[in-house]
Amino acid sequence: MVPSSSSSNDKVAVITGSSSGIGFETSVLLAKNGFHTYTTARNPEKLQVLKDIAWDNGLFIQTMQLDVTSDRSVNDAVSRILFDSKRIDVVVNNAGYALVGALEDSSMDEIKAQFETNLFGAIRVMQAVLPTMRNQRSGKIVNLSSMGGE
Q: What pTM did the predictor assign?
């Protein structure tokens, strides 16, 4: 059974883009290593497998909607995490995607949307968590990227 809440002594991790790939695997690894893990994705229905893993293994994995391109979505998610857990110790900025194809075939709107997710999304999340980490006088932020994504 999944624990329902965390205490102020538990380490809290937040991972963006957790529905697949590195974000998914990082979420499971952190939870297995005792972190109270908040996994996020634009579409939270894609996080059901993580809910199942948490239930089957007694891990604290909380799934929630977070769209890194939206100030409101990021601030709402961070506020909910802080309300529940009172702290954030690790953030893994993993949300991103690759715009595949020849540059001349990509519209400026497509390119701007990719930067909004892959670059500005990470900045938006950092801006939301840094005041808490500064107040705690602790915390780690890991920013992931790929050659295909930026």
A: 0.90
